[in-house]
Amino acid sequence: MRGLRRHLGLTQQELADELGTRQQTISEWERGLYRPRGASARLLTLVAERADFAYEAAPGEGEESHAP
Questions:
Q1: Is the dihedral of CA 39, 25, 67, 48 positive or negative?
Q2: Whole-structure pTM value
């Protein structure tokens, strides 16, 4: 997640603004506290594809998931 954001040249706040979420959410994804889910996971995969960046939502990221 952090790699994609950096590849895009965005801060956490800028990515949050683009996705319509909070900066705190981006931080939590990057720290592994939560994973992107639902529309956010799909959107991130599409953004990565268009940016030619190897990122794909892992199986199960469509569901709310907490780090072990």
A1: positive
A2: 0.75
User: Are 46 and 57 within 8 A, CB to CB?
Assistant: no
8-67 confidence digits (pLDDT tens): 999 999 999 999 999 999 999 999 999 999 999 999 999 999 999 987 665 544 433 334
Q: For residues 60 and 38, give the distance between their C-alpha atoms in angstroms, rounded to a whole number.
A: 10
Backbone phi, then psi, for 2, in 5-degree steps? -60, -40
Torsion angle of C-alpha atoms 24, 58, 51, 3, degrees rounded to 10? 50
CA–CA dist 47, 12 (Å, integer): 15
Round to the nearest angstrom and report the end-to-end CA distance of the chain.
Answer: 18
**Which domains does the chain carry?**
2-50 (1.10.260.40)
